[in-house]
Amino acid sequence: MNVNYAHLFHAGNFADVHKHLVLTALLMRLSEKPSPWFYLDTHAGEGLYTLAGQPPPGRSEFESGAEPIFHASSDNPIVRAYQFLLNRFNPEGRLIRYPGSPLVAASLARPTDRLVATECVPERARALRKHLESWSGDVHCRDGYEALGAFLPPREQRGVILIDPPYESTREAEHLLRALPRSLARFPRGIYVVWHPWVNPAFVSGLRRRLKTLGPVSFLDWQTTRRQGLRGSGLAVFNLPYGLATSLKPVWESLKDMYATTLGPVEFVQTEPTRMGAATRIRKTVP
Q1: Mind telling me the catalytic residues?
Q2: Are 230 and 15 in contact (CB under 8 A)?
Q3: Rounded to two decimals, what is the model's pTM?
Q4: Phi then psi for 57, rounded to 5 degrees?
Q5: pLDDT at 282 over 50
């Protein structure tokens, strides 16, 4: 499978909203305790993206992604935290810039928390360093899967690892499945978030079948009725904190109607592992 999910061309789409809402919820949960947390972004990209140069109105992916939530009114604390950081980068009141995962994490970090972001493309790594100048974060130009071995386990002993590759290579899943077991062994308490596109059902089912053998993994999906292109966004979360899926349920409820027109009817699906074995039970969080 060759998807070529480059951050630059898809910045602010519904998959970004999906992964960044979950990332926001995870880091907010970790911040409930005073002890510091660690964040590692293995495929960080440039960190901040200008949306003005995207395709003409009606064809830009952020118009059916971040823009509706940017202008919406919400009482949900997770949604409001995400909206706050979007407004932080867009003081003009228009969605001009979209923060990538490293800046989402940096915006939520406390002075004692620690961020490491890796990007293997030199020019993107340079741009990321510039965009992270105002925050305390380390940027390394290196392979993201190698970074898992270099920076884990962290001294903080708790944290989030985001693995969000572009899936440019047909061997991307193999690279991921080789690196992840070693990482889980080095830092078994870490919260690992693995994003994947929902394009080819055979690819998705095959990847998930193998992920289930590695540990307690939950799947949080945003599925749409699209027939072409990116039909859904999938997150595999290892060590999902207790009760967080329940906290996300009102988030999905508040977004369901918001995106019904632009993406077609949407459905958020949660799949949780059973306590014994690799078998799973499925519970839909939104009817």
Answers
A1: 164
A2: yes
A3: 0.90
A4: -50, 140
A5: no
